[in-house]
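S.,

Sequence below, as promised.
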Amino acid sequence: MITQERINELNTLLKDAKPSEIIQKAFELNKEAVVTTNFRPYEAAILHAVASVETAIPVVWCDTGYNTPQTYKHAEKVIKDLNLNVFLYVPKQTSAHRDVVMGIPSVDAPEHALFTEQVKLEPFKRAMEEHKPKVWFTNLRQGQTAFRDSIGIFSVSKDGVLKVSPFYYWSDADLDKYLEENKLPNEFKYFDPTKALENRECGLHA
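The prediction came back faster than expected:
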């Protein structure tokens, strides 16, 4: 387990570092790593950055089953173009079955917690239990939610995994430039069935 003191040191030391330098440092700390994605907007940046340092890194894709056709097409293109080592995790119940018995509950409905557990949290827990990473690369950024504003580039998940966000201080404009320079696609027709608001925490990180 990495100490909070060490995390604070890393966050101070690498505050202005390039994403590639942050990723390299994380691999020096431990090579047992995964990168997670849901192929939401700007995800191609983190996938490209991490795969550029370690091509064979497991890419954990937790698909809720409610993605738009545009997101699925975008995912297929990014996976192919970057030759990603993808491990797909889906809910144990199909979206068609759930639509009949529950539908997509509003965030205020009593069923919302169960819905989130089924489509997002359970597949994610299953993925982490199978891969048992010591390092988890993710595309969290400052300004997305109040919780994310407080964590920094390096943090520790509730399960004790070192969480690394190489683009933590980057703006959308910065990422637009990164995507353009590296000829990477982006896709904005993304749907998260567990969130009504863009700035609502998804449950995996808090």
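The domain at 4-181 is CATH 3.40.50.620 (Rossmann fold).

Coffee later?
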